[in-house]
Amino acid sequence: MSIHLSHQQRRILAYSIPVLAVFAALLFGAIMLVLLGANPFEGYSEMFIGAFGSGNALIATILKATPLLFVGTGIVIAFRANVINIGAEGQMVLGGLFATMAALYLPEMPSFIMVPVILIAGLAGGALWGWIPGALKAYYRVNEILSTIMLNIVAVQLMSYLLRGPLIDPAEIERGTRIPQTERLMESADLPLLFGSDRFHIGPVLAVLVAIATYYLLWRTPLGYRLRAVGLSEHAARYAGIPVRRTIALALTMSGALAGLAGAVLVFGSESHRMVTDGSTMGFTGSAGFNGIVAALLGGLHPIWTIPASFLFGGLIVGGQALQRAVQVPSALIVALNGLVVVFVVAADRYRVRLLSTDGRAQEVEDDGKMPLDEEDSALGAVYDAAPMGTDSYGQDESGDDPP
Amino acid sequence: MSEVFTTAVMVAVVASAIRLAVPLLLAALGETFGQRSGVLNLGVDGIMLLGAFSGYYAVLKTDNVWLGLLAGAIVGLVLGLASAVIAVTLKAEQGISGIGVYLFGLGMSDLLFQKLVGTPIPIDQFPGVDIPILSDIPYIGEMFFQHSLVIYLAFLSIPVATFVINRTTFGMKIRAVGEYPDAADTLGVSVAGVRYATEIIGGTLAGIAGAVLAITLGIFQQNLTNGAGFIAIALVYFGAWRPTGIMLGALLFGFVNALVLELKTLEIIPRDLSNLASMAPAIITILALVFVARRFRAPSALTKPFTRGK
Amino acid sequence: MKSRTITLVVLMAAFALIAAACSSDDSAEGFRIAIVAPSASNDLAFTQSMVDSANRIEGAEVAVTDGTFVVEDAAVALRDYATEGYDLVIGHGSQYGGSLSEIAPDFPETSFAWGTAADTFGLPNVYSYEAASDQGGEVMGIMAAALSQAANVGIVGPIEVGDAKLYVDGFEKGVLEQNPGATVNINYIDSFSDVALASEAAQSLIGAGADVMSGTAQMTVGAVGVASTEGVLWFGTQSNQTSLAPEIVVASQVYHWENMLEDMIAKIKDGTLGGEVYEINFANEGLVIEYNEDYDLPGDVKDLGEAKIDEFKNEG
């Protein structure tokens, strides 16, 4: 870059790049809107109003962002330990199921006991579904991408089995309607509402607290140090006496636990206060298991930056749906538009990183764990550079040829 | 139980497994090329969906299944190129940009379908080809040699891919770039060029996989692949980046699916437990990998963008 | 069956009302309907049946949010349409009920409808509706048994829940009613969206001897294709599926919600915003068997089906 920019100018430019990328994607979307016979200006103003334009819109956006933040924070933990977790969809389902079962089978207790109980149950369900691929990777060298994709399939079938069998609302059998859903779960397990709102529950606050706690965990505790050390170099970590396998299993377990928490919050913070399925994971999670990965990466794989990233991504989803309703274009357009935004933002990330790369001060801050955005390479890339993802470096065959 | 293990039933299950395996196989094979050169593409399912729609639409308009296959291939090629621009030139995070490509394909294929076609209209399917002599062998013939031409072609692509990766200069470059990009670069191999090539191959095969799916089914619908692209990615790991391993994985996954369906038809699996049985393909795929000793590791440059002199 | 009785009373009252209203203002001019539905509005199945029906109502303005399989997103959409002042907001998916019961009380001036279900939650501004898809299933099951030379019928289902289960059970009942010795194989593939698996399920049912088949939900388009290739007869449901395979589709049970919607509109205009359960069935012509004119259905088989339809009409 030949033009000399001051530190401050670089920073501002750097942070405006994701925003510019979103605009570029929306420009593509505008062309599609025109082709579909809709007015893009009207569409986008509806989108903005629908996401941020009123109290209700903000609540909808924050509630949409909540599971993204839980999942995203979990993704940060996993990625920092150099583990890819694309099983958050299934982990959310298990969290929802465990929490639901706790509310169905435990005796009614006061809210201040019930709410923590169902949250812990959700945590446990997600942790279990994260521990399985974690242990399989650590001890049996089963690649976590394979196992998490497969476990998502298992989770959805388990959900269908439970919700149309053991957990079904008895009234559904009586009426013969057989909707695969539980009865309305006990009221004392409802997530407490805040600010006198009829929908705004403690979930978002909890998610922000979890993100902050994760920041402390990763950069202020021995466990966090171990996780990051394994992520940077397994060999070095082993040399330093860190139990690498156990740490890998733990990273996926913790990542899963947070996704499970998101699942519990989805059930007990929902309008219906019950678990219901359409036979797909997406129907329950709203793809938060995938979108949470996007949020985490937009947040530079840093728990604190994942908070605004989740909020903006939640706004994009909620606003997109408002756009669909206002100008009556097929919902499919919104899905495609979401994809474009993700692609553009991620593709532009390189330029943001490059702008910050010659900034000497940024590197120091990163060492403090505060500003992972300012690495020479982008954050994830740095993790990869140190130890390539998916490498099971337990002394396997080095040959690139087919086995004989 | 004796009903299940009659030869006729097993023959049907194997034939069904082969049909279910083919789209997974083609997509996974394409992904293998990319991964061997160090690029992870999580957007396979999106490319498959757009390939499926374009293949479907081309057949709908021309009544020619081969033009449909071509349309799927071209759209896949273009999307492979786009993926390469994103992953290689712009050096984007590969996992995440793939999710973007997936969402784009999911939405766009559905949007185009709604606007250009409307409700599902059936199209011509691939003609069946009975291989002379072989198809007359009892049982074996019905299992393996009474399929449509694309299915034979898909299986023929396995040895071709193995040969290309292991025995050609191009394959050597792919492996070099995936393992030791710096060394390859020093020796004058264009890391970016090789990765562009493998991404384009991968996209094209994913597009073909989608078109094969749509034309085999003779129909298109929203989210036609139903996540097959993600299963294909899982199978690349199952097959440890080797075409033959991937073929075995795809066949295993297809076989367990087909067997479960057959057991449901014969009411050997009670309907209440149906969902539990439907978990079997996923669980068995994981277990198979646990019990088969894994002695392979990922290409060491996988997901790492290459910057010269670093 | 209590709900059926209620429905009956409601419908009789409704017809009386329509008769009364017919003379006066019965147009839906300017009436605004919003539909939130789980699958695509061109799915040739559940969602399309409602979108098509609403669009058939003259003068009504129809807004659609389809593909809303996420229940919480549907809740946001329902709330938004109510806020926008739509006269009738329809949650076209039984999984939306829980949310609707929470939303409706916040909008006492807006009329809501949801289905398929038989529960208005005791709310004065919620209608619910169901389809007696077991009736059509039974009628077509009878015809299927009469057409099956192998006395073997196969059914492809999604997940054994709700409307799908109702239809499949009805179809099986019909087959066995006509031919108690017939084999009925049922294959629930445990997915509403896996077209490839549905097509292999059809292969498997044909392998087990089926020469007449049926299936329900949007993923069965794959199964119809297999039936067509193998020359096996097919009965469709929810929307008219003849276009999928004109040579083998015998008939389809089609959901016609428009009479019900018109009745709701009339009531809403009169100030009754809900509290009633509707059922579409043969008696009120909400269910219609649409025959494929290109298929040469033997007269005696058709008579068997029509006789059953008449039976339902007289009952209901």
Spatial order of the strands in the main sheet of chain C? 2-1-3-4-5-11
Strand content of chain A: under 5%
What is the mean pLDDT of chain C?
87
What would the CATH topology of chain A be?
Answer: ABC transporter involved in vitamin B12 uptake, BtuC
Query: For the terminal residues of chain A, how far apart are their CA atoms?
Result: 51 Å
Question: How would you describe this protein?
Answer:
The complex is a heterotrimer of chains A (404), B (310) and C (316). Chain A has helices at 7-35, 40-52, 55-80, 88-105, 111-140, 144-164, 170-175, 203-220, 222-232, 234-239, 244-268, 281-285, 288-298, 303-327, 331-357, 360-367, 379-386. By secondary structure, chain A is mainly alpha-helical. Chain A has one domain (39-328): ABC transporter involved in vitamin B12 uptake, BtuC (Orthogonal Bundle). By secondary structure, chain B is an all-alpha fold. Chain B has one domain: ABC transporter involved in vitamin B12 uptake, BtuC (Orthogonal Bundle). Chain B has helices at 7-36, 44-62, 65-89, 94-117, 140-144, 149-167, 169-179, 181-186, 191-217, 228-238, 243-265, 274-278, 280-291, and strands spanning 128-130, 146-148. Chain B has a two-stranded antiparallel sheet with strand order 1-2. Chain C has 316 residues and is of the alpha/beta class. Chain C folds into two domains: 2-131 and 255-280, Response regulator (Rossmann fold, 3-Layer(aba) Sandwich), CATH 3.40.50; 133-247 and 288-315, 3-Layer(aba) Sandwich (Rossmann fold), CATH 3.40.50.2300. Chain C contains ten helices and twelve strands. In chain C, strands 2-1-3-4-5-11 form a six-stranded parallel beta sheet, with helices on both faces. Mean pLDDT of chain C is 87; it is low at 17-25. Chains in contact: A-B, A-C, B-C. The interface between A and B is large, with 65 and 70 residues.
